[in-house]
C-alpha cells in the first residue's frame, strides 16, 4: 500500500537493488543466456537447497537477492529491480492496491505455516492474546504477521484498536522486544526462531489461520519473453524436485545447511523441518481457481480491517500463463 513519500523510497530502492541485481531479465551481456533476478526472504534458502540437491546447474543465470520480507520483494518487482518474488498471499495484495500492478502471480508453493507466531519477551507476564489489550504490539506490516495478528485478536474478543500496533521490520522488532519498547511481536521465520532462543514465549500462532499458500510472482516484462517463461518454469520445477530430494533421506544434510544459515542447533533445524513437512509437504503447484479464491479471502479481510481503502479483485493479477511449462517441468 502506498503512502506519502512512497515514490522517493521506491526510487531509492530501485537504485540500490538494481546496482546489486543487474538489469531486467533477459540476455546477459549481449549473449543468449537468460538471467532471472529472484528474491528470497530471511536467507537464500532456495539457492542453498538447489545446490544441496545438485540442481543448480541451470542453463540460465539466477541472481538471488535477499530481502526482509515478501513485501520488500514485491516493491523491488514494482520498481523494475527484481524479476521474480516469493511471498505469502498478503504482499501481492498491497503491491496491487494502487490498481496498477506490473506483475502476476504465476505459481503456488504449498508449505508449512509453523514459526508464524505472536511472542512475548523473556520475563513477561503476558501469556495470552487476550492480555494484549492496551499493550504495544510489534508486527511486520502487510505480511502474514499482520493477517494472523488481526485474526488472533478477533478470536480473543479484541479489535485492532484495542492494541497499539507498531509496524516494524523483523530485526528492529527483535531489538524492541528485548529492549522493552514493545510488549509482544507478531512475526515469522528466523525472527521467531531467534526470539525463542533468547527466551521469548509463544502466546499465539498463525499455524491454523494461514492457508499454507506461498506465491511466486513475476514481472510483466519477465512474462513477456518466451525464454524467460521457460527459465522460470524450469527453476520452479527444480525447487519442487529439491524439496523432494531432501525428503528422500537427505533431511540431516539439509538441516545442517539450515542451521548454519539461521544460527540454531542442527537438531532443532531438523526437528522444525520434519514437523513442517509433516504438517504440509513443500510442493510447487500451478495456478488454480481455488488458490486465487484463497487470496481473495485475504484481500477481503484486509478490506474489512480498513488496511485496504478500496475493494480488490485479486484475479486481475493472477495468470495461468506459466501453467503449461510449469506442469511439464514438474512432471519431468
From TrEMBL:
<dbReference type="Pfam" id="PF09084">
    <property type="entry name" value="NMT1"/>
</dbReference>
<protein>
    <submittedName>
        <fullName>ABC transporter substrate-binding protein</fullName>
    </submittedName>
</protein>
<feature type="signal peptide">
    <location>
        <begin position="1"/>
        <end position="27"/>
    </location>
</feature>
<feature type="domain" description="Solute-binding protein family 3/N-terminal">
    <location>
        <begin position="35"/>
        <end position="258"/>
    </location>
</feature>
<dbReference type="InterPro" id="IPR015168">
    <property type="entry name" value="SsuA/THI5"/>
</dbReference>
<comment type="similarity">
    <text>Belongs to the bacterial solute-binding protein SsuA/TauA family.</text>
</comment>
<dbReference type="InterPro" id="IPR001638">
    <property type="entry name" value="Solute-binding_3/MltF_N"/>
</dbReference>
<keyword id="KW-0732">Signal</keyword>
Amino acid at each position: 500500500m502506498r503512502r506519502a513519500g512512497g515514490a522517493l523510497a521506491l526510487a531509492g530502492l530501485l537504485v540500490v537493488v538494481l546496482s546489486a541485481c543487474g538489469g531486467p531479465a533477459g540476455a546477459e551481456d549481449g549473449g543468449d543466456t537468460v538471467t532471472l533476478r529472484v528474491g528470497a526472504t530471511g536467507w537464500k534458502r532456495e539457492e542453498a537447497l538447489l545446490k544441496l540437491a545438485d540442481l543448480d546447474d541451470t542453463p540460465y543465470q539466477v541472481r538471488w537477492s535477499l530481502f526482509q520480507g515478501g513485501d520488500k520483494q514485491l516493491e523491488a518487482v514494482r520498481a523494475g529491480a527484481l524479476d521474480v518474488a516469493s511471498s505469502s498471499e498478503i504482499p501481492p495484495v498491497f503491491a496491487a492496491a494502487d490498481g496498477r500492478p506490473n506483475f502476476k502471480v504465476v505459481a503456488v508453493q504449498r508449505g508449512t505455516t509453523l514459526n508464524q507466531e505472536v511472542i512475548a519477551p523473556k520475563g513477561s507476564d503476558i501469556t495470552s492474546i487476550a492480555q494484549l489489550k492496551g499493550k504495544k504490539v510489534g508486527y511486520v506490516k502487510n505480511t502474514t504477521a499482520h493477517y494472523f495478528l488481526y485474526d488472533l485478536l478477533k478470536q480473543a474478543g479484541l479489535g485492532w484498536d484495542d492494541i497499539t500496533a507498531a509496524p516494524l521490520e523483523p530485526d528492529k522488532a527483535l531489538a524492541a522486544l528485548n529492549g522493552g519498547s514493545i510488549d509482544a511481536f507478531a512475526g515469522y521465520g528466523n525472527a521467531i526462531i531467534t526470539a525463542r532462543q533468547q527466551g521469548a514465549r509463544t502466546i499465539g500462532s498463525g499455524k491454523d489461520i494461514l492457508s499454507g499458500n506461498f506465491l511466486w510472482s513475476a514481472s510483466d516484462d519477465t512474462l513477456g519473453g518466451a525464454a524467460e517463461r521457460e527459465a522460470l518454469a524450469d527453476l520452479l520445477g527444480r525447487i519442487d524436485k529439491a524439496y523432494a530430494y531432501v525428503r528422500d533421506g537427505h533431511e540431516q544434510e539439509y538441516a545442517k545447511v539450515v542451521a548454519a544459515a539461521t544460527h540454531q542447533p542442527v537438531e532443532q533445524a531438523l526437528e522444525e523441518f520434519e514437523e513442517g513437512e509433516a504438517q504440509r509437504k513443500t510442493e510447487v503447484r500451478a495456478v488454480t481457481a481455488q488458490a486465487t479464491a484463497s487470496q481473495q479471502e485475504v484481500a477481503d479481510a484486509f478490506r474489512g480491517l480498513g488496511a485496504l481503502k478500496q475493494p480488490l479483485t485479486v484475479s486481475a493479477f493472477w495468470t495461468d500463463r506459466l501453467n503449461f511449462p510449469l506442469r511439464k517441468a514438474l512432471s519431468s
